[in-house]
Specification:
The protein has 126 residues and is an all-beta fold. It is 0% helix and 49% strand. The chain is built from no helices and 11 strands.
Amino acid sequence: QVQLVESGGGLMQAGDSLRLSCAASGGTFSRRTTAWFRQAPGKEREFVAAISWSGGGTYYADPVKGRFTISKDNSKNTVYLQMNSLKPEDTAVYSCAVTGTYYTGYIGPNNKWDYWGQGTQVTVSS
C-alpha cells in the first residue's frame, strides 16, 4: 500500500512560480509511474503531467507544456511539480497519483492510477 502526501500549495499571483512535492511511503515508489492531476471548482479532474518510474520520460498536458516541469527523486521517494508563469486558470487542487503496476512503459494520462494523495490547493490571482 502506497501513501502519498502533497505539499507546497499556496496563494500566488499571476506570473509567480511554485513547486509542489509529492512524498510517498509504504511502497516501492521507484518502480512506479507517477502523475499530477488537478481539479478546479466545478470542473472535472484533469491530467497535468506524468513521469516514468525511472524519471527518464515525461508527458505533459497541452495547457502546461513549457511552463510546468515534473521531476522525481527516487532516493527521497518524492516527485515534484515545478510550476512557472502561473495563470489564474491554474487554480485548482493538485493531487499526485501512482500506478499499482511496476515498470509501466506508457506514461500518459490513461494509466491505471491506483493510489492518490489528498491534494494541495493552488490559488493564482490575477
